[in-house]
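queue> pop job 88
queue> type: inverse folding (structure -> sequence)
queue> payload:
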């Protein structure tokens, strides 16, 4: 079967939702102390924080202080997929006339890995320019020092 005829791997659920907030600390405190979400990670230099919804394989909330989101984010959603599904997605997206993107919005031929989670992700834009992501949570141990780099580099780590 060619990529043009391939069916996109099944979406397993909505993995993450992102909100822009006026004050990151106030919002983190609210979602932690009032809503009861567990903090996952924060990146002060980017003015973003992530909180787990249930557990790391189920869902996540991203809070971005106004104007700090990636890909000139208007709205962002991430659909949960199997690892194999995320790995297949770039070729299928490309064959369907949709440009697969890396974390910074650059054209990509393979997913990236977020070492702190760790998770495998590929991005693309919908017809309105919204940021869409396919994400699969890796079973590997988190490695925050890895940063955000291509999956091929994750596999090559010692």
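queue> result:
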């Amino acid at each position: 079967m060619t990529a043009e005829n391939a069916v996109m791997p099944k979406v397993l659920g909505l993995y993450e939702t992102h909100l822009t907030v006026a004050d990151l600390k106030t919002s983190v405190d609210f979602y932690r102390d009032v809503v009861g979400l567990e903090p996952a990670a924060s990146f002060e230099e980017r003015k973003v924080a992530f909180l787990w919804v249930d557990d790391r394989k189920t869902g996540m909330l991203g809070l971005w202080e106004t104007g700090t989101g990636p890909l000139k984010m208007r709205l962002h959603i991430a659909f949960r997929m199997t690892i194999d599904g995320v790995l297949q997605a770039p070729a299928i997206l490309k064959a369907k006339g949709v440009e697969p993107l890396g974390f910074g919005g650059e054209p990509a031929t393979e997913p990236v890995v977020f070492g702190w989670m760790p998770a495998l992700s590929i991005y693309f834009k919908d017809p309105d320019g919204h940021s869409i992501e396919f994400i699969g949570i890796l079973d590997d141990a988190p490695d925050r020092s890895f940063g955000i780099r291509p999956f091929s580099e994750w596999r090559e780590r010692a």
